[in-house]
Amino acid sequence: MPSPEIPIRHVATLARLELTDEEAARYQEQLGQILHYIDVLDRHDLEGVEPTAHAMPVLDVIRADEARTGFSQAESLTNAPRRAMDQFQIPKVLE
Amino acid sequence: MSLATQTLASLQRRIAAGEIHPRDVVADLATTIEAGNPQLGAYLSWDADRALAEAEKADTTLPLAGLPIGIKDNINVTGQPCTCGSKMLAENYTAPYDAGAIVRLRSGGAVPFGRLNMDEFAMGSTTENSALGLTRNPRDPQRVPGGSSGGSAAAVAGNLALAALGSDTGGSIRQPAALCGCVGLKPTYGRVSRFGLVAFASSLDQIGPLTKTVEDAALLLNHLCGKDGRDSTSLDAAVPDFTTAIGRDIKGLRIGLPREYFIDGLHAGVSASVKAAVDRLAALGAELVEVSLPHTDVGVATYYIVAPAEASANLARFDGIRYGHRSDDATDLMEHYFKSRAEGFGPEVKRRILLGTYVLSSGYYDAYYLKAQRARTLIRRDFEQAFEKVDVLVSPTSPAPAHKLGELKDNPLAAYLEDVFTIPANLAGLPAISVPCNPVEVDGVSLPIGLQIIGKPLDELTVLRAADAFERG
Questions:
Q1: Do A18 and B354 touch (CB under 8 A)?
Q2: Which residues of chain B lie closer than 8 angstroms to A9, CB-CB?
Q3: Cα end-to-end distance, chain B, whole Å
Q4: How far apart are CA B343 and CA B334, in angstroms?
Q5: Angle between the N-to-C axes of helices B22-40 and B48-56, in degrees from 0 to 180, rounded to the nearest 10
Q6: Which residues contact B204 (CB under 8 A, 6 or more apart)?
Q7: B165 within 8 A of B69, measured Cβ to Cβ
Q8: Contact criterion met (CB below 8 Å) for B83 and B117
């Protein structure tokens, strides 16, 4: 399967990353090379092989339904770059 | 001579005998770091006062007896920075809790001391992707220490730390250990809690020790492993005393040599050194068996789909709101995300986020991600079949000795291919160690080479036993 040209601007939008024109051109080229390399996967017949998500799968992990102490509001806010009125501050989303 | 040249085991004995107190060890180490770090660049920060206060109160009857352990800067320790080598977390992040591995380490009596440099968010194999400083190889300052746990390996091999923690997603403990000349162990996936390790690729990441000796690796591993309710992938498996693997022989141990790992592209010095290591293992009584891992050729490609895919999801948490860098230039929310992330992340992290986003994007999932997951199954089965015939596998850790600074900088694909021998153990979740073998002479400098020993799932004991027997010769 030949790798198609990556729609780099569209991908950057999905990833919420602003790119300069120079970055977009460079990443487009580099990712193209990497994806071209990744085509070596086609050397093996993968049809019908069961996919692996985790090498050591541990399923149905649950814990006792008991209340535990978490961070206080003040602790939760200590690393916020901006806060106001004991809350995380974000740019305006509603006019 | 600084106490930082000593092993954990020897200092543990001296502390137990009442010859020295852990405060002396921390004070000595702080002076040594102060003097040596400007040249080596292994540490990003260290808080000597805090470590001294902790060492002062240390319970010297505990196995790790107040000994200071350096910590890779992606593992949270309460009240300390955790930059991940990134601008994203460098300005205003202080860890609000101890990682699961740190909780264990402390209950074994250790004192976390110092934050070690790394490739940004653990993405890289030279530590040159750190946004916060250059780390040099202690054996040759013109060369890289490897990565991503380059600060950890440089500190241990350069005698600026007794031992350190690193994290390994595709070789990030073993490869820098090999290139700097120390021991580095990646445990079985799930052995060590990932809670509080800043996530890169969650199905591959694992914390482990970098040490001066195999015995020290066993000692530290005793105080890292175990089930943690805060990491749903941590294994509920019995944790043996790993130091029982030390001082044993390897007569009759079946050692597999994977045909696909001894290839033509190997650096001649690496090839010679690893061949000599294999001869030594045979002389020690091990039985050598040639085996095949036929899907080795797709390991790197599989990894560079799975790891960036998981990274693109994990790094979505950096939104510039709850923690991390926030742009001053945004006027609306979307612009806030775009600019905060563009300003906070460096080039390699952006490259991998874009690659991961692309392979997961609508229409490409089956062509890349699903295919990689299928290839991952074949790689895992290769190991299962090989381990029906042998107890451990050995290989070079890295195809070449340490590169010169800047040599791989503009060629990401070439850098990725350096991980060819370390990646499969992550994809299959297996324990693997790198232990120094004969160094090679390059341009008049003696450069370390690592021998990798890979074991069956949860069989760190046999990996350590083989590595220790090899180390003692």
A1: no
A2: none
A3: 26
A4: 14
A5: 160
A6: B169, B170, B189, B303, B306, B307, B310, B426, B427
A7: yes
A8: no
Closest residue in chain A to residue B228, using alpha carbons only: A63
Beta carbons within 8 Å of B456's beta carbon, 6+ residues apart:
B387, B391, B392, B430, B431, B462
- A11–B428: do the CB atoms touch at under 8 Å? no
Q: B332 and A93: CB-CB below 8 Å?
A: yes
DSSP track, A30-92? HHHHHHHHHGGGGGS--TTPPP-S-SS----------------HHHHHTT-SSEETTEE----
- For residue B125, whether the previous peptide bond is cis, meaning omega lies within 30 degrees of 0, is no
Please give the interface size between A and B, counted as residue pairs whose CB atoms are below 8 Å apart. Answer: 165
| β-bridge mates for residue B70, sequence order | B164
Q: Is A1-45 CATH 1.10.20?
A: yes
Q: Is B210 helix (H, G, I), strand (E, B) or coil?
A: strand
Q: Which residue of B has its CA nearest to A26?
A: B351
Q: How far apart are CA B121 and CA B194, in angstroms?
A: 14
Output the 3-class SS for B187-208.
CCCCCECCCCECCCCCCCCEEE
Strand B445-455, strand B392-396: pairing = antiparallel
pLDDT computed for residue B78 by the predictor: 98
Residue B28 CB neighbour total at 10 angstroms: 17
Predicted confidence at residue A1, as pLDDT, reads: 44
- The CA distance from B257 to A80, in Å, is 51
Query: Nearest CA to CA, how far is B111 from chain A (Å)?
Result: 24
Amino acid at B34: E
Query: Which secondary structure element, helix H or strand E, spans residue B447, and what is its range?
Result: strand B445-455
Domains of chain B in sequence order: 1-473 (3.90.1300.10)
Find tokens 């045909």 and name the residue.
Answer: B259
Pairing state between β B392-396 and B254-258: parallel
Kindly identify which residue of chain A lies nearest to residue B94, measuring between CA atoms: A79
Name which of B57, B59, B72, B70 is nearest B12 in CA terms.
B59
pLDDT digits (tens, 9 = 90+) for B32-72: 999 999 999 999 999 999 999 999 999 999 999 999 999 99
CB contact under 8 A, A38 and B339: no
For chain A, the C-alpha Rg in angstroms (whole number) is 23
Contact B93, A79 (CB under 8 A): yes
What would the 3-class secondary structure string for B116-179 be?
Answer: ECCCHHHCCCCCCCCCCCCCCECCECCECCCCCCHHHHHHHHCCCCCEEEEEECCCCCHHHHHH
Residues of B annotated catalytic, as ranges: 72, 148, 172
The overall pTM is greater than 0.95: yes
Label residue A80 by pLDDT band (50, 70, 90): very high
